[in-house]
Structures are given as structure tokens and as C-alpha cells.
Amino acid sequence: MSAASAPITRYTRRIAAKLEQAAQTEQSHLTLSGLVQMMGPTAHRLLLLVVSLFNMVPGPPGYGGTIAFTTMLIAVAMLMGRPIRLPPIIGKRKLPLDVLVKASRQVVKVAAILARFSKPRMRWLTSALASIPYGVLVIAVSCVMALPIPFINAIPNVGLCVIAFSMLNRDGVGVIVGLVLTALGLAVDAAIILGALHLGMAAMNAMG
């Protein structure tokens, strides 16, 4: 299979094309609910890739937490086999279209390069049955990434992005790589959380 015909290449081009189409209208921002409708309320795996990619784009305060909760809700909908419906407090959050379009163009280029190395293999790790452990993992990691601690979502999100990419490209080996990156990220997060707790307790003891 050539890189141009790989599933992930088609998916990323679809993402970019839809965002380009939205950018041609007069709107300058896209809500998260609008994003869900654009990509398809039942396109759970595709949207998990989209939000994990968008989580790499710098945003205003609270942006990372909003994306983490969005990721969690998408995974819950996937596990329940239901269309994705975001509550207004999250669904109405706006994303700058110009930034998303630029990011999607880069994603298409990167996907084309990665597709040269990623290919369908060990498909049982990307089957429909794999959606259950996949969804549970995404929910667990999203809970950690939602914590209001700077940089806590960086490495785990890379792992989720690799898993989402590999799921769409039916690449079980890529899923394993993503799992390793996610585990590494969670280990780093645990160290950060423990360090923050230690500093907090030390500060309280000093004040006392």
C-alpha cells in the first residue's frame, strides 16, 4: 500500500478539507460542537485523533482542560456506541479557524511521511473489539490530563495521538508504540504530581 492510499492519509486530508471549507465562510472560529458535527457525531476514532492533534496547539488558559474533557466525552460515547454530544459548557468553546487550518496542513504533510512507515499489521489491536480497552485508556489518561498542572498533558497526549493515528491506519505495531509513550507520559506526570504535593506540604509546614 502506498503512502498516498493509506487510510491515515485519506483521513487527514478529509480533516484539512473540511476545515478549509469552513474557513471559506465568514466565521473566524469553530465551536467544539461544530467540530463534532463537521467530522461526524459517530466518527469516534477520527475525532479522537483530531482532538489529540488540537491538544498540541497552544491555547488560552483552560484550553488543555477543555480538550481533555472533550476527549473523555468522545471516548465515553464510543464505549456506549452512541453519537457524540458535548454539553454546552464544552461544546460552545471556540477554536480559531485560521490556526486549525494551518495545523491541519502540517498534519497532512506529517501523516504522508509517517504513512511510509506505518502499514496495516497486527490488526487485532485495531479491531472493533479493541475499542473497549482503547476507550477505557483514553478516559483514564484524559482524567490525568484534565488536572490544572502546567505541561502535564504533553507526553501522554503524544501517546494518545500515536494510538489514534495507528488505530485509523490499522497499525497494531503503532498502537504498541503509542502505549509505551502514554505509559512514559503517565510516569512523568506521576513524578510531577508527587513533586507538586511534596512542595505544597513543605510550604505548609514552613508556614506552620
Query: Structural class of the helix and strand makeup?
Result: mainly alpha
Shape, per Cα inertia axes: globular
Helix run count: 9
Please give the share of residues in helix.
Answer: 55-70%
Q: Mean pLDDT, nearest integer? A: 86
Biggest sheet layout: 2 strands, antiparallel
Distance between the termini: 66 Å
H/E series, N to C?
Answer: HEHHHHEHHHH
The count of domains is 1
Strand count = 2
- What fraction of the residues are assigned to beta strands by DSSP? under 5%
Poorly predicted tracts of residues: none
Keywords:
transmembrane helix; two-stranded antiparallel sheet; Exopolysaccharide biosynthesis protein; mainly alpha
Structural topology:
Elements: H1 7-23, E1 29-31, H2 32-39, H3 44-54, H4 63-80, H5 88-91, E2 94-96, H6 97-114, H7 131-145, H8 154-168, H9 172-207
